[in-house]
Every structure is written in structure tokens, then in C-alpha cells.
Design brief:
Length: 346
């Protein structure tokens, strides 16, 4: 019988130190291996050149390093790059590199498929197959950082959790990944450059606040009227707007960090004055800004973005109420890399 070897990156630093101690080696060896695994993102024991050959063999006999493999890379005419990455069990997720004049942003996935059921999103049609492990999220960032250096001669500057999946439905692994991304023992990126985007799971938003996370929070709102929101984001029935609002008030009271609302304006769905008034009212609860994002059509969907006139009306009323609003253009549409289009057509 073959014994399935454990993924070494599931071990904490202390567990690695203990492992070496039990082997009769110095616990310090654990620190060295840990550094290879995270700060140097090694994908094989062979790479660990300051570790003796015998020790590397011993590690090889006991563990595997599960890691992602960039399967295909697509480049958009606007410079956006989309990676389809293969996980150790053959499943595929997507991540995106979005360059602008001043920054390069990685948009990473947190689940294979998605737990939620937003009717306008391509990923939702895949259903959730499994959560990503912390190392699988970490590896996406490392891969995008490499591509940023290769194609744009600069390191990655920002990360958004806006790829496939609902990050707050994979809470522990996402937090562990961000820990490795921000820790000096990992990639050492500032948490201020990370934004987690959620459809709004109130209990988990409160948990983020209690856990004193240092990154930014974005909420995909799309409507501030319960019936409308439930019709396009059915889970809103379970997590209605009053609960969401309460959790956001809690978040702000603890973190003092503004919230970003993502909002798409669709024709015939949320394009009336009543919708605008509800949003303005919702925005008064907690300091925030609104990003109006372009709708990216997905196959056979009946949704249509509202005309500019309706969007301008939103902007006018938000600004009149001194709410910061940005109009966000989509990137990477020609390669299905834009928000809501990630569904691994390959
Ligand atoms: N589950 C998380 C993160 C993934 S979705 C969340 O809901 O925030 C990332 C963003 O893309 C969300 O704001 C989502 O509402 C938006 N989105 C989904 N489908 C889209 C589409 N077809 N066009 C434009 N944006 C879309």
C-alpha cells in the first residue's frame, strides 16, 4: 500500500521545527525549509541548495510540495493577462494581471467555482467544487508577480480577491494565504494593497473586524433594495441588507476603514430613481465609496447594462450627497478576463 504523502506547506513553522527535532536534526533546519517554501516559493526540494542532499531526500520521502502549474496564458490587447492554473488534483482556476500606468494588480481566485448564485456571473454557473488551499492562493500571486516583472518590468503592487469564488466562504484559507503574502517571511507585501471583495456574508465580515485584519473590504452591492438584490443575488434572502448593513457598521467601528461598494447598473433592474435613493441612503450608514463597474456580458444572459444616461444619474445623485463615486472601465474583455467572466472556458 502506498501512503499518501502530506503537503509540506500545510505545516506551520513550529510544526516543521518539531519535525526536524524528531528526526534528530536541528530545529533550525525547519526555519531554513520554511524560508524556501514561502519567501523563496520553492516548488521542489531540489531547489533547496543550502540543505544537504540526504536531508532533501528525507523530505522527499516524507512530503510533497503541491503547487500550481500555469496551464495557459492569454494576453489581451489592453495588456491584461489571464492565467488558467492547474491545481495538484487537475482542477483549473483563473487569475488575472491588470496593468495600469501606476500599478499592477493581481486578481486572484479563492474557490474552484463559487458557493453563491449571482445570476449575472459566469463563475456562479460552475457551482463550488472545492476551496483553494492557502498555498494555491499564494502561488497565484507569485505567478502573477513573475509575469508582471517579465512583461512590465515591475513587481506586482496590488492584490484583489475578485477572481473565482466567495473569499468569505473560504475564510480560514484566505486569511492564511494573506498572512503568507504580507508576512516578511513570505512576500512581505503591505496589507494596505490588498482588497477582499465579498458578496456580503455578515457573520464573516464581523469576524474580519474581530480578527483585526489590515486589508481593505469591498462589497458587491448592486442593489440596496432587498427584493431587487434577492432577484439577482439569491443568497440575499439568507443575508438581507439590514444584516449586511449592521455588519458593515461593526466593521467600521472596529477598523475605521472605509468600505468600497461595487455596483453595476442594469437596464430594467436597478436603473430608477428609487434604486438611486436606496443606494444613497445605504451609503450614509458607513463611510464608503462607490465603484460603478461595467457589466461584462456572459453567454446567454438576458442582462444588459443601462445606458450612460442612467449611470450619469447615479453619479449625479451620489456626488450631490457627497459620496465618492468612480466609474470603472472593464479590462481584458476580449479574453474573458473581466469581472464575472471567469469560468475557464478551456
Ligand atoms: N464573490 C466575490 C468576489 C468575486 S466577484 C464578490 O462577489 O465580491 C468580483 C466582482 O465581479 C463582484 O463585484 C461581482 O459582483 C462582479 N461581477 C460578477 N459578474 C459580473 C459581470 N458579468 N460583469 C461585471 N461584474 C461582474
Amino acid at each position: 500500500m502506498t501512503v499518501k504523502k502530506k503537503d509540506i506547506r500545510a505545516l506551520t513553522k513550529d510544526q516543521l521545527r518539531d519535525f526536524f527535532e524528531i528526526q534528530g536534526d536541528k530545529p533550525f533546519r525547519g526555519n531554513q525549509v520554511y524560508e524556501w517554501l514561502w519567501r523563496k516559493s520553492a516548488h521542489s526540494f531540489e531547489d533547496m541548495t543550502n540543505i544537504s542532499k540526504a536531508t532533501r531526500q528525507m523530505l522527499e520521502d516524507n512530503f510533497v510540495i503541491n503547487h500550481i502549474e500555469v496551464d495557459t496564458i492569454q494576453r489581451s490587447t489592453d495588456g491584461t493577462v489571464k492565467n488558467a492554473v492547474r491545481l495538484f488534483d487537475g482542477l483549473i482556476v483563473e487569475s488575472v494581471l491588470i496593468p495600469t500606468k501606476t500599478r499592477t494588480t493581481a486578481c486572484v481566485s479563492s474557490q474552484v467555482g463559487c458557493s453563491l448564485d449571482c445570476t449575472f456571473c459566469a463563475t456562479a454557473r460552475l457551482k463550488r467544487m472545492r476551496n483553494l488551499n492557502p498555498d494555491e492562493i499564494f502561488d497565484q500571486v507569485v505567478a502573477i508577480d513573475k509575469e508582471s516583472r517579465l512583461y512590465y518590468n515591475r513587481p506586482l503592487s496590488n492584490i484583489v480577491f475578485m477572481g473565482m469564488g466567495e473569499p468569505l466562504m473560504n475564510y480560514n484559507n484566505v486569511i492564511k494565504a494573506i498572512d503568507k503574502i504580507t508576512s516578511p517571511e513570505g512576500l512581505g507585501m503591505s496589507p494596505k494593497r490588498i482588497t477582499l471583495s465579498t458578496s456580503g456574508v455578515p457573520k464573516m465580515i464581523k469576524k474580519l473586524a474581530d480578527d483585526e485584519v489590515k486589508f481593505h473590504l469591498a462589497v458587491s452591492l448592486h442593489s440596496a433594495i432587498d427584493e431587487v438584490r434577492t432577484s439577482i443575488m439569491p443568497f440575499n434572502k439568507t443575508f438581507p441588507l439590514t444584516d449586511l448593513k449592521e455588519s458593515l457598521e461593526y466593521w467600521y467601528s472596529k477598523t475605521k476603514r472605509k468600505i468600497t461598494y461595487e455596483y453595476i447598473v442594469w437596464q430594467g433592474i436597478n436603473d430608477t430613481q428609487k434604486d438611486i435613493d436606496a443606494l444613497v441612503k445605504f451609503c450614509k450608514a458607513v463611510p464608503c465609496k462607490v465603484n460603478i463597474i461595467e457589466y461584462n456580458p456572459i453567454d446567454d444572459s438576458e442582462f444588459q447594462q443601462a445606458p450612460n444616461e442612467a449611470i450619469n444619474k447615479y453619479i449625479y445623485h451620489l456626488e450631490k450627497n457627497r459620496i465618492v463615486v468612480n466609474l470603472r472601465r472593464s479590462r481584458g474583455k476580449d479574453i474573458d478576463a473581466a469581472c464575472g467572466q471567469l469560468a475557464n472556458k478551456s
